[in-house]
Amino acid sequence: MNYRGLAKGMKIELEEPLPFPEGQAVRVSVEPCTSASRVGSPPAVLQAVRDFPHLHAVDLDELEAALESARLPVHAGIVLNEGK
Question: What CA–CA distances, in Å, run from 44 to 34, 35, 51, 54, 76?
C-alpha cells in the first residue's frame, strides 16, 4: 500500500487514515514525493498499472456475481440505432 503524507519533525501525517486498528505495528519505507509521482501523471499511471491490487478469491466471486446480476437481457430483432 502506498500513502502520501507530510513529514513533520519525527512524525509523518498521512493524507488518509490507515486501514489498521489503533496500535497495529507497521513497516514504513519513506521516500520524497516528486512531480513525477503526481496523481494522473504518466509515471503515476504506469506505476498504478504495474501495481494493480491483488484481490482475494472471495472478492473476485463477489465482483463476478455483481456483474452477472447487472446484465440486461438480449432480445433478437431489436435495433437500437440504425444510424439515422
Answer: 11, 10, 10, 18, 44
Q: Which three cell numbers stand for residue 80?
A: 437500437
Three-class HEC string of 13-77: EECCCCCCCCCCCCCCCCCCCCHHHCCCCHHHHHHHHHCCCCCCHHHHHHHHHHHHHHCCCCCCC
* Residues facing 7 on adjacent strands: 12
Is the whole model's pTM more than 0.85, yes or no? no
Asked if residue 23 has pLDDT above 90, the reply is: yes
